[in-house]
Structures are given as structure tokens and as C-alpha cells.
Write a structure and sequence with these properties.
heterotrimer, A alpha+beta, B mainly alpha, C alpha/beta, B: 2 strands, C: D-Maltodextrin-Binding Protein, domain 2, 11-stranded mixed β-sheet, binds adenosine-5'-triphosphate, binds magnesium ion
Chain lengths: 369, 572, 330
């Protein structure tokens, strides 16, 4: 990964519409060689469409797709050199596992010997040696998934495309396969783009996440970046949990008002006083109890509900009429310490360095995922 | 929804980036063009010819709707419309009622011999329609065996004969639909009705009937269309009664009055098209009827009901066997009903040049089966898997043929393939044209079957292939076709059996050297050689049954071979 | 894919006209069972000829021939009513040709032009078939004349061919109209219609229906009546005492016959002695003198027929058929 090398995949200002439905607007992106990138976003945001445009299975209205510096926009799928795994796997039911994996190799005029060798290699890679002669219908979902992966990798493509490869599996298998795919990708060093709408999946697997919404790329960044520095209200809400407060900008830069209360927040480009803005803070960033006594941005919340979530408990705190309830995560120890019980009033502090400012004027109804 | 409306969409240019032309795209384009051309040449254009001709006089002058005015003003001809409508309605009610009870007995009871009853009821599918007319004359005619025995003459020539013979002919078609509809019942509804203390009658009226409502409607439309477009039976047993289909035949074959034939054709298109449109709507709704959670219904146990239904089924089965028995016997005796001496002389077919028509029919049916299967499957594949702006229109054009009565198609082909100076003339008078007309006439059902089986496949097979540089035709051949093989075999059989018995389009298109067996039956009956007509019918039915058996055997082999990969359902 | 290509190829191959090795396309209205007999002889005498035949009733074959005038399929018209031949000739569909042996044909039996547009081969006439078994059962008297057929006892017991499709049907109607004149003839036909059970497409079907016992009386022609009787059906032939209608059947070469030489060879054979001998097994008279009359038929037909004015029949054909249709086609 040297600076002067062309990215493995580069998208330049891609736009795509289906009739009157705009699926993608002006999407640009560069994926470095060997990188694992996730497209993350809610249903219908255009993830699959973007992936299929890279694959050449869908044709964009505007924009350029480059692979290793070469413009491939005009190449049919068969000339783009990638492997793909679909959500349904699309395994050929009438061919055995071995023949499925050999499918792409047979088209390449390889000798039977070579093909058999490569198939064996891949079967080892995905730990399916024992199932060579089975038909897909005789495999479990996870095994099918691995056959699909092996089939896509068999011709040694430069790029691996995965469209929600894990969504059809149950939770346990999904967790195991996450690890396996990631490890495999590391080992082979193959550039990989995976589509998912599962934020956890993207956070754990991706080198970089591309968050999309309504056909627009909202943010591109490492998982940590995306989590800690969400650039939009949407990203903040979609990746992890975030409390939102509708406030108006104060005359003092770095300040805003929630009713009568003045709140200091992170530094942000100044806006005219009175402009409505949104403040966001993650549940675990709210200080509760004695620690809040002499901090900035102090408020009082009454516990309206507790939700036990294993390692921590989520409190719902009513702030009175002026604002919607806040959610706040407390570890087991802290919970006992502050004496949180339903109906109890607790002192809270919203750390100024955790209060992010979003310019979105009016938050839409459904905010968090 | 955010503001991604038409305004924004308008800012994105409509044309998509073009991919470089490669062999695959060229081939796909060529196939699509070929398919479109086929549909235009053999469906769209001929139909327009009929429409156009109905607006001309016999000298080719444009006269607007004058032909239609003349049609409804000529009482003799206009009567054919009302005759057609009421005969078809009566046959429809009778057939669907009889078939419903029969289907009910087959699906909702455990009476013995169900398999046998089912097979026997399918027999009429193997015979040209007019065979049923001929058989009825032998049994109920003025000198029919029953009339002679009982002295009771039911007066079979006319509406009565048409309705009864059509009922026989259409019975299996209605039965197939109704058996399917009744088999799909949800037991939970019956349990609920029983729990609520509903009487049997009430359960029947509130659960059974609504449950098969769409099946019933579908059966009604199918039978109505079959009857109103059939001309074999009215021709044989209609006596002085004229219906629209025989009217077209008389106008065209008798008088070569093509414009009047075209006019009647267009009028005949209307009820067929309406039935078709409504049936499509009904079919669309039917899918939602049985949810995936439905529980299959365990057949009822009432002994009396079972006994009554058994007698009912046995009676109908006996009648069907009787009809074919009569055909068989008359073909083997010297002179029905005077001399019952055994003879094979009716099987010599001196008057029609021996076995040529039968061989022609077999050849046409085989070619129709091969070419039709390829075309229907490849066509459905192109429409389903190669999405273009043409897909919608191609789909519509592909399901349109079912709404075209065979006679109208035959007439349309005369206009198209016997036009002076047309390069298509070479097809006129060839077996190929007969194959093509069958192929189009029976295209819709195979096309829909193929579409359904393609839709059940994963949509991404081709994409997977393409991603690995495997051309689409290879994936088609190695994956799509093997998976769809049972459907494909079914399609071939459908084409073959229908091509064996069809009369309506063929009767306009046979020429010296291309005589067909079903047409020969018609001509021999026309000439009064009914025993020979019966003999030919026996051969048609026999070869149909043989071929059906062959297909059954083939299908069994395929099922056994494919069991390996379908036995254990996948969980994914 | 390969299979698709193969099937298309097969289709295309079949679409090609079969290699024209002395093929001749013949349109005929002769009775099917006779044709079988004739074709045996043709195949022996002219082994190089591949005869493709279309056989339909007189009216049907004529209508089809006329309809194909712009894309003519037939090379030869064989054994089609002279009345229709006159129509074809006037429409310019025939090519004059004098077949070998023309001089033997009696002058009455040929087109007057030289060379003739058509040459006759036979004469046949209308005759009734009467089923005696039914007669006994229903107590029906045997009809002796056209007039008898309108008697109320025969209600729904009579069938005759539709003159639109059948030559027999037309010759009967034409003969009645010539004999009784219009409108008297139509009045008779109205009365006859009241007794009619059905109008059949083919000319032989009424007699076969009578033979099968489906009807009591069938108006057909003499040969089929005789044949049914010989085959053991309980029928008797009746030649109406007013005189039978009759018709001549003739051959012609079509305009721009595709297979001209073969067509001429066929036409030559069709008036040869061999052909005449075969025709004479079936017809009351053939166009070359000196052949025997079939057993059971009158030796001199001029005694039993009502003279036919062919020109009148041809000239008024369209009008008569239109009128007939208007009155009786329901
Ligand atoms: N072939 C098509 N025709 C019309 N509209 C389409 C087509 N394919 C996608 N769309 C529309 O484009 C938009 C984006 O679709 P896409 O499949 O890319 O979403 P996605 O992000 O993959 O969603 P999901 O998570 O549900 O798979 C959606 O509004 C969808 O309805
Ligand atoms: Mg998707």
C-alpha cells in the first residue's frame, strides 16, 4: 500500500436511477489494495446497487468505475476479474460441491489435473474436504456459505464482493463465520467489499466502513472514526446508540440553549444565534450520580425505566417537558453506586467534549437503529 | 420518504453506461431480436391482418365496419352469436358442476379406485374434439345403439348434442383445475368451522366454496373458451345449428369469403379475450389464498357420502370408457349397427392415401414438441433473465396466443402466408407452417410453465457465471436446463399431445402432402365414412397414450436422477 | 443452444419446397374411394410422377382454388364440375391445353375453344337413398319423385348436400330451378327445406347417413347409392321421376402451372383409355364412347335426366347460392 499505487477499486461520482427511483447519487470512493471495506446502511439505501455496479451486473447512469487505475465502466462483468457471493449463495443445486467450486475454473481451459488441485486447495481453505461429493441441498447453511466463498475465490480474482453473505444464517454461525471470513481475507490479502446492514458486523470486520443513506455516501472511515466522530446525525444514529437533543444556537460560540438551560458543546463552525441545531451524546458518555455534581452542563433526570442488557443496564431518564428522555448506560457496579431505581431523581452531566453538534434542522421521527 | 422524487431523478441522465459489445451480448441481442421477430411474424402481424381484412370487402376496398353491420343484420349468421353464447354457457355450467363433484370425491374422500378414476377422466384429452361428437352419434343418434335398444330418440343433432359432447371433451380440463384447487384446502379453516358448530352444509357454503372460488372461476373460463372456439363438435353433431366457429369454417372453407370469415373471427376474439383477461386477474389473486402455514386437509370419513360419490364417479368413468369403447368397436366391425362382423378394413384408409396423415401428424407433433419446447423455454429465459425494455412487451406477446381461437389463427396464417408477392409464401402448404401454427396456438401455457420454473430458480446464477467469466449459455446449459428438466419434459408432452389432436388452425392450413390425422377424421366424417373416421381416432388416441406413457417413463428417470440434489431440502 | 440451432435447421429444411422431381399438385373433387383406385393406375403408368393431391367437395375445392389465384398452388384441376370450370375459365385461371387423345372425346364433353380450356371425363346425376329398415319402422312410403320429398310424412327425415360446398347439391338445386323456373323452383325448395334435417357438406354424406340409418332419405348421387346397397346397407336407390339433375366433371391445366410438363403428362393420362375404363366403373357415362355402364344404372342416361343448361348454371351460380343461403342457411 504505497501512496503512488492506484487504488484497487475507485468509484467516481456514480449515479444510478431505476425509472423515477434514485438509487445512488454522486457516490465516490477509493478502496486500497488488500483492504476490507463494508457498505453499511439501512434497507434500500443503495448498497447492493453500488456493489452490482462495481461488478458490472448493473449499469450506472453517470460515473466511472476504475480497477487498479483502469477504467472498467465499459467492461462486461466477465472481464472485470472479481469473485462474488450473494445473500442466497446461488449455489448450483445440480452440481456437487466440487463441481460448484470448479465451475469458474473449467471455463478457463485448465487441465483436469490443475482444476482438481485447485478445488482441493479451496476445500481445505474452507474446511469442507469431507463434503466434496455432496450436493448443496445436503449441506447446512454455513457450509453452503463456505462453498459459495470457495467458488468465488477459486479463479483467484483480484477482488471479492460479498452481498450480505451472513444474513441468512443464525446468530451463532454468523459469529463464527465473521471470524473465518475475516481471517481468510487477511491470509489471502484479497481486496474485499462487503455489503451489510448489520452495524456490528461492519464494526468487527471492516478496515473501513462506508455508511450510506438514501443513495448517498454519508461517511467513510475506520470503525473507530465512524463511532467516535460521526459526521452526520444519520451516521451517529445508525452506528451505535446516540441521544439527540433539539436545541438552538446561542450567541456565544460553542454554546446552545435547551429551553432555559445553557449547554456548552464541542467546538463547531459558528452559526447565527437562534438557529435550531441538534446535540448528540452516546449513552455511555453521560455522567451520572456524584461525578456529575460539579461538572458542566448539569441537569436532573428522573429514572423512568431500566433495561437490563447483560454487561450493562440502560436507564431511561425523563428530563421533564423540555426535552425527550435520555438513555444512559451504566455498568453493574456504577448502577448500585448511584442507587438507580425507578422514580429516583439523579444528577446528570453532559460532558461538553462528548456533545457533538449536528446541523440537521429538524430530526426525523425514526432516529436510532 | 426523503426528497428523492421525480425532480431529482430528472437531473440524472436516463441512458446508462454502455458495456463493450462482446460475444455474449451480441448473442443475447440476436436471440432477443429473433424471439421478438418470431412473435411479430407469427402472432402480431397475422392478427393485425385479420383485423384489417375484416374492414375490407372481397375486392380489397376499405369499407369500414360495413362487414360487421352486415354480420349482425344477417339473421342467419347473427344467430350463430347467440347460439355460441348459450351453448357455451350451458356446457360450461354442466361441465364445471359435474367436474366439481368428481374432483371433490377424488380429493376429499378416501374412496377406493381414486387413481383409476383420475386416469380415466383424463382420456378425452387424447382425442380430437369431434371424436366425442362422432361417438355421441353412434350412441344417441337416430340410429344410435341406445336409440335402437330403447326406442327413445333424444334428438341429438343440435344444441343438445353439442352441449353433451362438449361436456365430455372439456371434462378433464375442468377437472385438472378443480382438483388442484380442492387439494390446496387449509384444514385449519375446517377445524375452526367444526369448533364453531357449523353444519356440513354451512361449512361447505362458507369454507369449501369460497376456498375454491378462484379455481371454479378459472375452470369456468377455460371451459367456456374451449367450447366457444371449438368447431369439431358442432360440425359433426350440430345438425342445422350454426355456431360462430362453424360459421367461420363455412365462410372460409366453404365459400372462401375471407372478409366475412375475418369479421366473425374478430367477434369470436372478444369473448375469448375477455375470458382470458379475467382469468389472468383471477390467477393473480389465487396466489395469496393458501398461506404457507396452511395444514393439508385430511379427507372426510362419512360412509354414505363416500358410497354415493363412488357411484357417481363410477358412472362418469363408465360413460367415458363407453364413449371410447364405442369408437373402438365401430372401427372394428363391418357396418355399425347392422353388421358386427369383425374386420380391419376400416384401418386401411384407402380413401385418404393410407397412413400418410397419421405419419404427418406424428411428425408435426414431434417437431412441435421439439421446436416448441426450445422456443418456449428459451423465450421465457430471454424474457426473465435478460431484462431489457422489451421484456414487458415480449411477455405480453407471449401470453397473448392463448386468447386467439385456433380458427382465427389459421385464418390469420392464410392471410399472412398466402399473400401475393410475400416472401413468406414459401411456408404456405408446408408441414413447417403447421408446426408453427401449433407452436403459436399452444405457446402460452408452456411459456408460463417455463417462466414459473425459471422464477423459482435463484436469480443470480447467471451473475455468478458472469463473474467467473463463464458465458451465459454455458450456465444455461449446465445449470438452468438440468434444474428445469421436469418442466421441460412436461412442456414437450403438452405440445405433442395438443398437436396430435388439434383441428381448428390446421383445418385451414393443410395442403396436398400435409394432411393431418385429425383433419382426416373431419373429412372422412364429412364424407360419411364414419367407421374410418373412428379408426383414425383410435390411432390418434392410441399414439397419444403411448407417447404419454413414454413421457411418464422419461420423467420417472429424470426424477430418480435428480433426487440426489432435491431430496434433502436446504435450510438456507 | 446447439439443440436449438438444430431444431431451427430442421424447421428451415422443412420450409424448403421439396425438391421438385416431377411433382404435380392436383386439386380434385372426385370421390375418395375412386381416387384410390385411379392412383394405383397412375403410379404404375407414370412412375416418375409424384402426385400431391388435395381432395375437397366441389364447392370447397373451387373456392380454395379461386382464393389462391395470386399464389397458385395447383397444377391440375381434375374431376371438378363443368359449371365451376366455366367460372374458372372466365376468371382466367386456366391454360388451354389439348391433351393427347382429345379427338376421342365426344364434342359435348369439352370446351368449345381450340385448344380447349377444359375437357370433361364423366357425368353423374342426383339420386335418392332410401333406408328401408327405417321406412318399415316408421311406416314411411318410398318416395318416387322430387315432389314426394315435400310430403309432411318425411318431416326431418331428408338430408341433402349444401349446394355451396357440394357439386351434387348445386346440380340438384340448379336442375330444380331450370325445370320449375323461378320463382316456382324456390317455392318448391322452401317446402323441401321444411322436411330437411340437415344440409351436409359433402355430396355423398346424405346417402351414407341414410345407409347408416341416421336419416331415412338422403339426396346424393347415383354411384354412392349403388355402392351403399352393394355394401349391404338396407337402402334403395331412387331416380326421381321428374328427371335427375346431372353434372359433368372435367379436367384442366391451371394458369402458370409450376410443374407444367408433369401436369400435362397427368392430364394426358386422365383421358386415356386406361383412365376411362376406371371411370366407367363408377359413372353413368364417361366422355369417350364405348365403355360399359356400371351394373344397376340405366343404360341410357338421357332417359332419366333432366337436360342441364351448363351456361345458365354457371352464369347464375353466385346469385343462386346467395339466394339459397339467405333462405336456408341458419
Ligand atoms: N431493478 C430495480 N428496479 C427498480 N428499482 C430498484 C431495482 N433495484 C433496486 N431498486 C431500488 O433502488 C434502491 C436501492 O436498492 P438496493 O438493492 O441497492 O438497496 P440495498 O441498500 O441493497 O437494500 P437491502 O439492504 O434491503 O438489500 C431501492 O429503493 C430499490 O427499491
Ligand atoms: Mg441489498
Amino acid at each position: 500500500m504505497t501512496a503512488h499505487r492506484s487504488p484497487a477499486v475507485a468509484l467516481e461520482r456514480i449515479a444510478k436511477k431505476f425509472g423515477h427511483v434514485v438509487a445512488l447519487r454522486d457516490a465516490s470512493l477509493a478502496v486500497a489494495e488488500g483492504e476490507f471495506v463494508c457498505f453499511l446502511g439501512p434497507s434500500g439505501c443503495g448498497k447492493t446497487t453500488l456493489l452490482r455496479i462495481i461488478a458490472g451486473l448493473e449499469r450506472q447512469n453517470v460515473g466511472v468505475v476504475r480497477m487498479a487505475g483502469r477504467d472498467v465502466s465499459h467492461l462486461p462483468p466477465s472481464e472485470r476479474n472479481y469473485g462474488i457471493v450473494f445473500q442466497s449463495y446461488a449455489l448450483f443445486p445440480n452440481l456437487t460441491v466440487a463441481r460448484n467450486i470448479a465451475y469458474g475454473l473449467e471455463a478457463r481451459r485448465k487441465s483436469r489435473h490443475e482444476i482438481d488441485g485447485r478445488v482441493a486447495e479451496l476445500l481445505d481453505l474452507v474446511h469442507l474436504r469431507a463434503h466434496t461429493q455432496r450436493y448443496p441441498a445436503q449441506l447446512s447453511g454455513g457450509e453452503q456459505q463456505r462453498v459459495a466463498l470457495a467458488r468465488a475465490l477459486a479463479p483467484s480474482p483480484a477482488l471479492l464482493l460479498l452481498d450480505e453473505p451472513l444474513s441468512a444464517l443464525d446468530a451463532r454461525v454468523r459469529l463464527a463465520l465473521r471470524q473465518e471470513i475475516k481471517a481468510l481475507q487477511r491470509r489471502l490479502g484479497i481486496t474485499t467489499i462487503m455489503v451489510t446492514h448489520d452495524q456490528e458486523e461492519s464494526l468487527t470486520m471492516a478496515d473501513r466502513i462506508v455508511v450510506m443513506n438514501h443513495g448517498v455516501i454519508e461517511q467513510i472511515g475506520t470503525p473507530v472514526d465512524i463511532y467516535t466522530e460521526p459526521r452526520s446525525r444519520f451516521v451517529a444514529g445508525f452506528v451505535g446508540h446516540m441521544n439527540f437533543l433539539s436545541v438552538v444556537a446561542d450567541a456565544r460560540p460553542g454554546w446552545s440553549r435547551l429551553g432555559a438551560l445553557a449547554l456548552r458543546h464541542r467546538a463547531a463552525p459558528p452559526v447565527p444565534a437562534g438557529t435550531p441545531v441538534t446535540l448528540g451524546i452516546r449513552p455511555e458518555e453521560i455522567i451520572v450520580g456524584s461525578g456529575a455534581r460539579d461538572a458542566e452542563n448539569r441537569i436532573v433526570g428522573r429514572v423512568a425505566g431500566l433495561q437490563f442488557l447483560g454487561a450493562f443496564t440502560r436507564l431511561r431518564l425523563d428530563l421533564g417537558d423540555s426535552a425527550p428522555p435520555l438513555e444512559c448506560d451504566l455498568a453493574m457496579g456504577a448502577l448500585a453506586e448511584v442507587g438507580a431505581k425507578e422514580g429516583v431523581e439523579l444528577p446528570l452531566a453532559l460532558r461538553a467534549d462528548a456533545l457533538r453538534v449536528f446541523r440537521d434542522p429538524t430530526p426525523p421521527a425514526a432516529s436510532d437503529a | 420518504m426523503p426528497a428523492i422524487g421525480p425532480v431529482e431523478a430528472a437531473r440524472i441522465p436516463t441512458p446508462v453506461v454502455r458495456h463493450r459489445l462482446d460475444g455474449e451480448r451480441v448473442l443475447r441481442g440476436a436471440l432477443l431480436t429473433g424471439f421478438a421477430l418470431f412473435l411479430w411474424l407469427f402472432v402480431g402481424y397475422p392478427l393485425l391482418q385479420v383485423l384489417w381484412r375484416s374492414l375490407l370487402d372481397n375486392e380489397g376496398q376499405f369499407i369500414g365496419v360495413a362487414n360487421y353491420v352486415r354480420y349482425v343484420r344477417t339473421p342467419a349468421i347473427a344467430a350463430s352469436i347467440t347460439n355460441s353464447l348459450w351453448v357455451s354457457t350451458a356446457a360450461m355450467v354442466l361441465t364445471v358442476t359435474l367436474a366439481f363433484v368428481y374432483a371433490y370425491a377424488l380429493t376429499r374422500t378416501r374412496m377406493p379406485w381414486r387413481g383409476f378414476f383420475r386416469v380415466v377422466a383424463m382420456l378425452p384429452i387424447f382425442a380430437p374434439s369431434l371424436v366425442h361428437g362422432i361417438a355421441f352419434v353412434y350412441v344417441f343418434g337416430n340410429n344410435g345403439i341406445l336409440t335402437r335398444q330403447t326406442g327413445l330418440n333424444v334428438g341429438i343433432y343440435g344444441a343438445k348434442g353439442i352441449i353433451f359432447a362438449e361436456t365430455f371433451y372439456c371434462f378433464p380440463h375442468a377437472l385438472l383445475i378443480l382438483v388442484a384447487a380442492l387439494s390446496a384446502a387449509d384444514a385449519r379453516l375446517y377445524d375452526a368451522a367444526a369448533a364453531l358448530g357449523a353444519s356440513r352444509l354451512r361449512t361447505f357454503l362458507t369454507v369449501t366454496l369460497p376456498g375454491v372460488k378462484y379455481g371454479l372461476m378459472s375452470a369456468c373460463f377455460v371451459v367456456f373458451t374451449l367450447v366457444i372456439t371449438d368447431f369439431g363438435i358442432p360440425k359433426v353433431i350440430g345438425g342445422k345449428m350454426s355456431v360462430m366457429a362453424t360459421e367461420i369454417y363455412n365462410q372460409v372453407i366453404g365459400q372462401q369469403n375471407f372478409t366475412m370469415g375475418a369479421t366473425v373471427s374478430v367477434v369470436l376474439l372478444i369473448p375469448a379475450a375477455i375470458a382470458f383477461a379475467v382469468d389472468r386477474l383471477v390467477q393473480r389473486r389465487q396466489y395469496s389464498l393458501v398461506t404457507s402455514a396452511a395444514q393439508p386437509l385430511a379427507p372426510g370419513r362419512s360412509r354414505l357420502a363416500r358410497a354415493l360419490l363412488f357411484v357417481y364417479c363410477a358412472t362418469i368413468a363408465a360413460a367415458i370408457v363407453g364413449v371410447y369403447g364405442v369408437i373402438g368397436v365401430t372401427s372394428l366391425v363391418a357396418r355399425w349397427p347392422y353388421s358386427f362382423a369383425f374386420t380391419l378394413k376400416h384401418y386401411r384408409f384407402d380413401t385418404i392415401g393410407g397412413y400418410t396423415p397419421l405419419l404427418n401428424s406424428l411428425e408435426v407433433a414431434a417437431l412441435t414438441a421439439v421446436a416448441g419446447t426450445v422456443l418456449a423455454f428459451v423465450g421465457a429465459y430471454l424474457v426473465e433473465k435478460c431484462r431489457t425494455i422489451a421484456s414487458g412487451p415480449l411477455y405480453v406477446a407471449s401470453i397473448l396466443p392463448v386468447a386467439i381461437p385456433g380458427m382465427v389463427l389459421g385464418l390469420a396464417y392464410i392471410f399472412t402466408f398466402n399473400a401475393p408477392g410475400s416472401p413468406l409464401n414459401r411456408l404456405y402448404g408446408t408441414l413447417a407452417l403447421l408446426v408453427l401454427s401449433n407452436l403459436v396456438h399452444y405457446f402460452t401455457v408452456p411459456f408460463l410453465t417455463a417462466t414459473t420454473s425459471l422464477r423459482q430458480m435463484d436469480a443470480e446464477f447467471e451473475s455468478v457465471g458472469a463473474s467467473m467469466g463463464v458465458p451465459f449459455w454455458k450456465t444455461f446449459w449446465r445449470v438452468t436446463v438440468p434444474i428445469a428438466l421436469p418442466s421441460i419434459v412436461g412442456i414437450g408432452m403438452y405440445f405433442f399431445l395438443n398437436a396430435m389432436v388439434t383441428l381448428s388452425a390446421a383445418v385451414f392450413l393443410v395442403a396436398p402432402g400435409t394432411e393431418l390425422a385429425a383433419v382426416a377424421v373431419l373429412l372422412m366424417d364429412d364424407a360419411g365414412d364414419t367407421a374410418q373416421a373412428a379408426a383414425m381416432s383410435v390411432l390418434i388416441i392410441g399414439s397419444g397414450l403411448l407417447v404419454r406413457l413414454g413421457f411418464w417413463w422419461l420423467l420417472r428417470g429424470i426424477t430418480r436422477r435428480t433426487q440426489a440434489w432435491t431430496a434433502t431440502p436446504s435450510e438456507g | 443452444m446447439r439443440r436449438l440451432a438444430f431444431s431451427l435447421l430442421v424447421l428451415v429444411l422443412f420450409a424448403m419446397p421439396a425438391a421438385a422431381k416431377d411433382t404435380v399438385v392436383v386439386y380434385t373433387a372426385l370421390e375418395p374411394e375412386q381416387i384410390t383406385d385411379y392412383m394405383k393406375a397412375v403410379n404404375k403408368t407414370l412412375p416418375n410422377l409424384d402426385v400431391k393431391m388435395l381432395r375437397l367437395s366441389t364447392g370447397d375445392i373451387s373456392a380454395r382454388f379461386m382464393a389462391e389465384k395470386d399464389n397458385m398452388q395447383a397444377d391440375v384441376v381434375w374431376g371438378v364440375a363443368a359449371t365451376n370450370m366455366l367460372v374458372f375459365k372466365n376468371a382466367g385461371l386456366l391454360e388451354a391445353y389439348a391433351p393427347k387423345g382429345l379427338e376421342r372425346v365426344q364434342p359435348l364433353f369439352r370446351d368449345k375453344a381450340n385448344p380447349p380450356a377444359w375437357v370433361g371425363i364423366d357425368i353423374y346425376m342426383s339420386a335418392f337413398c332410401f333406408n328401408t329398415e327405417i321406412a318399415k319402422k316408421k311406416n314411411l312410403p318410398k318416395p318416387a319423385s322430387w315432389a314426394d320429398l315435400t310430403k309432411p310424412v318425411y318431416k326431418n327425415e331428408v338430408v341433402m348436400p349444401n349446394p355451396n360446398s357440394s357439386g351434387t347439391g348445386y346440380l340438384s338445386v340448379a336442375s330444380i330451378l331450370q325445370r320449375m323456373k323461378e320463382p316456382g323452383g324456390w317455392k318448391y325448395l322452401d317446402a323441401l327445406d321444411k322436411n330437411m334435417a340437415e344440409y351436409t357438406k359433402s355430396g355423398s354424406k346424405p346417402c351414407k347417413d341414410a345407409a347408416a340409418g341416421e336419416r331415412a332419405i338422403g339426396v346424393s348421387f347415383e354411384y354412392v347409392a349403388m355402392k351403399m346397397k352393394k355394401d349391404g346397407a338396407p337402402v334403395e336407390m331412387v331416380l326421381p321421376k321428374e328427371g335427375s339433375g346431372y353434372e359433368m366433371e372435367a379436367n384442366a391445366l391451371t394458369r402458370k402451372a409450376k410443374n407444367n410438363a408433369a401436369a400435362k403428362a397427368f392430364l394426358d393420362w386422365a383421358i386415356s383409355d386406361e383412365a376411362m375404363r376406371l371411370y366407367s366403373k363408377y359413372f353413368a357415362a364417361v366422355s369417350v364412347a364405348g365403355f360399359p355402364v356400371p351394373e344397376g344404372l340405366p343404360k341410357d342416361i338421357s332417359k332419366v335426366v333432366y337436360p342441364n343448361d351448363f351456361d345458365w348454371s354457371a352464369k347464375n351460380r353466385d346469385r343462386i347460392l346467395a339466394e339459397w343461403q339467405k333462405r336456408y342457411q341458419k
